[in-house]
Amino acid sequence: MSILKTHIALTATNLENSVEFYQALFGVAPVKYKSDYAKFDIANPPLNLTLNLGENVQSGGNLDHLGIQVETSQEVAAAIERFKIAELSIFEEHNTDCCYALQDKVWVTDPDGNRWEVFVVKVADTAPEKNLVVSVESNSTKSTCCQ
User: Fold this and answer.
1) Whole-number Å distance between alpha carbons of 85 and 67
2) pLDDT tens digit string along 60-95?
3) Contact 67, 115 (CB under 8 A)
4) pTM of this prediction?
5) Which helix (H) or strand (E) holds 23?
């Protein structure tokens, strides 16, 4: 496999609003934009995101949230500025302990209720003493985490 790129397809009830949101989120325009479809081809992170016009969207559904992990707090700050310019409602967290990791992050929500975070991990494991032992033979664990 020469290219590894995640593909996410989301239903959007208002394609124009969703395109504006994702342009602000990723800082790029869609590579394809039709009356009922838009495609963003993002190099970093490698992502093929498509928006398909639909009538019904269950806000949140089974999806908790989506995220983009960046390398530095400066990249989180740049995302915050991009979101402010786009006049998106944001929620910032600095030096927060989330998923047993110290992080800086900013949250935004797309027009259909999908929550996104842009975050940097500053300390990978804030509670190593709580790690569970997982058997190599077993593919299951007793704990799940967002990372």
Assistant:
1) 20
2) 556 778 888 888 999 999 999 999 999 999 999 999
3) no
4) 0.72
5) helix 15-26
